[in-house]
Design goal:
Strand order of the largest sheet: 6-5-4-3-7
Helix content: 55-70%
Strand content: 5-15%
Oligomer: single chain
Order of helices and strands: HHHHHHHHHEEHEEEEE
Structural class: alpha+beta
């Protein structure tokens, strides 16, 4: 097996010196080079961005898919690089159940027809939800995930290199400091006899002085080498600090990109909720066209003794409804007088019998109160046509 023994030994020595430097710093036995305040702030900001990006991603995934088991399954499929199997969401499952039951009861019956219409609307809502999830995943979650798995991993790599370069720099400073101390001690060593003395040349002191000279030379060379190593490590540290700083300053552009992704997410939500609202308004209009003998069953609740009390229903229209207090007072005022008022029809109504008047959404008719008539009804007029109309389908005009 071919490998460079010198390179291996050098790497082992570098790792050891870093480990010693790090340990001494933790024990308070060595000085530590502090990063400048601007770089520290950038590092803190990047870490904060990473933590909150992870948290927002997690909560968004919970919003888009509340079922934790399905999320785990989708995660495994993604890691295995396999396509996630298509499954019906809850709205689509409910819609299919309503359609199947409506067909079982009979599309010609009022209840069966209503179930089918509700089922179709639920499937439309489910389809809108699927589009919303897909759009959010592509335009919101994916950019956030790319930052965590791409840009931030690069920042972590460069930050680790910066940490190693700092340890190398501080180790070089410590080495130079020790070399200078040893060199100063060597210079303070004094010879015991003059160099030209014959006895001195044969004495032990001569051997000591000879060693001293070599000792001085060795520590002078050590100081020179330590100073050179310090210059190199300082240059490498400064270069790595600049690279790290440039990457960290790029987090600002990441924030700007995430802001655009957030706008896309809000736009997707707006479209989704608007679609759902419109689907339900259209459905309620369709259900409101059923005969009152079927739709009024839910407006009554049984009480003791077999008696029942009428519970008024306030329909939802495509526009914002008038305040309940004002609408109620207007109808009460109409009942207390013998005059007529114009009223706008909120949505279609099919008459259940000859005594009632069919209505079309947005048309304007005349209404008045007849003594003895149920409080939920008024008498409506359209040209020569007259008949009872439910007040919940009307909006009185000034």
């Amino acid at each position: 097996m071919d490998f460079n023994v010198k390179r291996l030994a050098a790497d082992a020595g570098t790792f050891l010196s870093r480990a010693v430097q790090f340990t001494e710093e933790k024990l308070g036995q060595a000085e530590k080079t502090e990063l400048d305040a601007h770089l520290e702030n950038l590092l803190s900001r990047a870490e904060c961005t990473k933590q909150w990006t992870e948290r927002i991603m997690k909560q968004t995934e919970v919003l888009l898919q509340p079922n934790p088991n399905v999320r785990i399954e989708e995660f495994l499929y993604e890691k295995l690089d396999k396509k996630v199997p298509t499954r019906m969401n809850n709205h689509e499952l409910l819609g299919q159940s309503m359609i199947d039951s409506g067909n079982e009861f009979g599309p010609g019956t009022a209840y069966g027809n209503a179930l089918i219409k509700c089922g179709e609307t639920q499937k439309q809502v489910g389809s809108a939800e699927r589009e919303f999830i897909q759009s959010s995943a592509n335009n919101f979650l994916t950019p956030f995930r790319n930052f965590l798995e791409g840009d931030f991993k690069t920042i972590l790599k460069e930050r680790k290199l910066l940490q190693n370069k700092r340890l190398d720099l501080d180790a070089a400073k410590t080495r130079l400091k020790k070399a200078r101390v040893a060199d100063a001690r060597a210079l303070s060593f004094n010879a015991t006899s003059p160099p030209g003395d014959v006895g001195y040349m044969a004495s032990f002191s001569y051997m000591v002085d000879l060693f001293h000279v070599k000792w001085l030379k060795m520590w002078a060379e050590e100081v020179t080498q330590a100073e050179q190593d310090l210059r190199i490590t300082q240059s490498e540290f400064d270069r790595q600090a600049e690279i790290t700083r440039l990457l960290l300053e790029g987090v600002s552009s990441t924030h700007a990109h995430h802001l655009r992704c957030l706008n896309d997410f809000v736009e997707a939500q707006t479209t989704y909720y608007a679609q759902c609202y419109q689907y339900m308004v259209d459905l309620q209009k369709q259900l409101g066209s059923f005969p009152s003998t079927f739709t009024s069953n839910n407006n009554q609740s049984s009480v003791s003794g077999g008696a029942s009390v009428s519970v008024p229903t306030i329909p939802v229209s495509a526009s914002l409804p008038a305040a309940p207090g004002r609408a109620s007072s207007a109808f009460n005022e109409l009942r207390s007088t013998s005059g007529s008022r114009k009223a706008r029809v909120l949505y279609d109504y099919d008459a259940a019998g000859s005594s009632e008047l069919s209505l079309l959404a947005d048309e304007v008719i005349l209404v008045n109160s007849v003594p003895g008539m149920d409080s939920d009804w008024l008498m409506g007029e359209r040209g020569n046509q007259k008949g009872k109309v439910p007040i919940t389908y009307l909006e009185l005009l000034n």
